[in-house]
Amino acid sequence: MASNAAWRISAFSRCTSIVVNPSCKKNERRRRLDFSIARSVRSEMSLSIGTHLIPHPKKAETGGEDAFFVSSEFGILAIADGVSGWAEKNVNPALFSRELMSHASNFIKDEEVNCDPQILLRKSHDATTSIGSATVLIAMLEKNGTLKIANVGDCGLRIIRKGQLIFTTCPQEHYFDCPYQISSESNGQTYQDATVCSIKLKEGDIIVMGSDGLFDNIFDDEILSEISKFQDMKDAAKGLAELANNHSRDFYFDSPYIIEARKRGFDVKWYEKALGKKLTGGKLDDITVVIGQIIQSSNES
């Protein structure tokens, strides 16, 4: 065997490599062994989260009818917007949305869920016993950066990358101002009616989620502008919620909701149109904002 030799031993079970370099010289009694261990480094994606909720002015004392659940540990963002029409039947619309989100928080470790927002929605809905209904949006981030989304109704989600909007969800509705909704009634929608999609995210991407109270009162370009002002996601969520709330109280603001209403034929009387008037204003509502920024961490194994 040659006097200078090298052997490489790969320890695949620990993803390490050990290099042994014996140096053999004539009459030398000692051998020098140099070990170089290269550990594998796995990058994982997680979320830095900020939230803010502003109830409808008339529902401030009870906290409104929106509910949400977030978890940085499990990469989950979820919003449920209780349908206010149930109040006409002497039912508290908040009970259904709050119970639904409570069950969602309990089922996140369930093996069957396995980072599938549609399954999480099914199990949470099945467990909910309150009377009522809600629009629901659940987003779950896998460690590899894939965001999975299940949406029923008109809660919304936007994804921002380097200051540009790269993804938006589309609302589901029966007709104007009547969205799809998960319900206690048999004729309501279920998890099977959810729009399901997934998108690969990168470090620094920002997820903006909200109830319709956000997106009915604020335009996408305003979201981009407002988000750019903040580094902290909690401050960003508060800033967006307050901007939407200000618009909702402005009788002269030409809001996204009012623009859509005019497109659907809802406007001022014909004689007011003749005078150059048009339907304007924001939409008073509960406003929930949930923001998650993608951060990357490295785990050495």
Summarize the structure.
This protein is an alpha+beta fold and 301 residues long. The protein is 22% helix and 32% strand.
Describe this structure in words.
The longest helix is centred in the last third of the chain and has 16 residues. A hairpin with a 2-residue loop joins strand 8 and strand 9. By secondary structure, this protein is of the alpha+beta class. The strands form four sheets. Strands 4, 5, 6, 7, 12 and 13 form a six-stranded antiparallel beta sheet that branches. The N terminus is likely disordered.
- Rg from C-alpha positions? 27 Å
Task: State the end-to-end distance.
Answer: 36 Å
Mean pLDDT: 88
Major sheet characteristics: 6 strands, antiparallel
Count of separate DSSP helical elements: 7
Total beta strand runs: 15
Low-confidence stretches: 1-41
Q: What is the strand content?
A: 25-35%
Shape: globular
Feature tags:
301 residues, 7 helices, five-stranded antiparallel sheet, six-stranded antiparallel sheet, 22% helix, 15 strands, disordered N terminus, alpha+beta, globular
Sequence-ordered SSE layout with sheet pairings:
Elements: E1 7-11, E2 16-20, E3 41-54, E4 66-71, E5 76-82, H1 93-107, H2 117-127, E6 133-141, E7 146-152, E8 156-161, E9 164-168, E10 173-175, E11 178-179, E12 182-183, E13 195-200, E14 206-210, H3 212-215, H4 220-227, H5 233-248, H6 256-263, H7 270-274, E15 287-300
Antiparallel strand pairs: 1-2, 3-15, 4-5, 5-6, 6-7, 6-12, 7-13, 8-9, 8-14, 10-11, 14-15
Helix pairs in contact: 1-2
